[in-house]
From TrEMBL:
<protein>
    <submittedName>
        <fullName>Lantibiotic protection ABC transporter ATP-binding protein</fullName>
    </submittedName>
</protein>
<dbReference type="InterPro" id="IPR027417">
    <property type="entry name" value="P-loop_NTPase"/>
</dbReference>
<dbReference type="InterPro" id="IPR003593">
    <property type="entry name" value="AAA+_ATPase"/>
</dbReference>
<comment type="similarity">
    <text>Belongs to the ABC transporter superfamily.</text>
</comment>
<dbReference type="InterPro" id="IPR003439">
    <property type="entry name" value="ABC_transporter-like_ATP-bd"/>
</dbReference>
<dbReference type="InterPro" id="IPR017871">
    <property type="entry name" value="ABC_transporter-like_CS"/>
</dbReference>
<keyword id="KW-0067">ATP-binding</keyword>
<feature type="domain" description="ABC transporter">
    <location>
        <begin position="6"/>
        <end position="229"/>
    </location>
</feature>
<dbReference type="Pfam" id="PF00005">
    <property type="entry name" value="ABC_tran"/>
</dbReference>
<dbReference type="GO" id="GO:0005524">
    <property type="term" value="F:ATP binding"/>
</dbReference>
<keyword id="KW-0547">Nucleotide-binding</keyword>
<dbReference type="InterPro" id="IPR022501">
    <property type="entry name" value="ABC_Gallidermin_ATP-bd"/>
</dbReference>
<keyword id="KW-0813">Transport</keyword>
Length: 235
């Protein structure tokens, strides 16, 4: 097994007495793409928000790079959760410039990340005029500005057309070779199986499977098995 960049130990989160994430222990190997799978409402986004410090766990621990997670670790984590945080009236470059100034990063990063996400030729076009796929790629460019070791993408292909999905897939697959580990959350199995190395399947906040990703029908039946087992357990 490769070295782990991130692991969670018995991560627990409840809102108003309702358990959302239930003793979740994830193991994410360095320089891989990890698919966090589960139906809508399974607890995926809540888990990612705890890993990125947006939410505090009620119990459990997050270990990043072999040490307990602290806010300083956010320097090594890039995040795109839900829709990209774009200024619609600014160009791609201007959007990135706002961030580099705010984060005290070198301006040279702007061209580097635009190249990575293939948005170098958008010129004066404003982000509000971008296609959904271009907006997602610009969101990923923003998440890459700080040269993260871990990139977290929550449902990144939501609403994209087949070409947008294919472009994004290729982009995500290219990251491990650049020293970037990716956690990709999704409820769409066909999209995930083509890019991930390992998966974790969550249902009702519980981890039902973790390991290598089986392909095609096998992945689908494993997913359904985990989901229905947890539904039965919950009723």
């Amino acid at each position: 097994m490769k070295e782990l960049i991130l692991k969670t130990e018995n991560l627990y989160k409840a809102f108003k007495g309702q358990t959302i994430v239930d003793n979740l222990s994830l193991k994410i190997q360095r320089n891989t793409v990890y698919g966090l799978l589960g139906p809508n409402g399974a607890g995926k986004s809540t888990t990612l928000k705890m890993i990125t410090g947006m939410l505090q766990p009620n119990a459990g621990e997050i270990i990043f790079n072999g040490r307990p997670w602290t806010r300083n670790d956010l320097q090594d984590i890039g995040v795109l959760i839900e829709t990209p945080p774009l200024y619609e009236n600014l160009t791609a470059k201007e959007n990135l410039k706002v961030r580099t100034v705010a984060l005290g990063l070198p301006q040279s990063r702007i061209e580097e990340v635009l190249e990575i996400v293939d948005l170098t030729n958008t010129g004066k076009k404003r982000a509000g005029q971008f296609s959904l796929g271009m907006k997602q790629r610009l969101g990923i460019a923003i998440a890459l500005l700080n040269k993260p070791k871990l990139l977290i993408l929550d449902e990144p292909t939501n609403g994209l057309d087949p070409i947008g999905i294919q472009d994004l897939r290729k982009l995500i697959r290219s990251f491990p070779a650049q020293g970037i580990t990716v956690i990709l959350s999704s409820h769409i199995l066909s999209e995930v199986e083509q890019v991930v190395d390992d998966i974790g399947i969550i249902a009702d906040g519980k981890l039902g499977y973790q390991g290598m990703a089986p392909q095609g029908q096998e992945l689908e039946s494993l997913f359904m098995q985990v989901v229905s087992a947890n539904r039965k357990a919950g009723h």
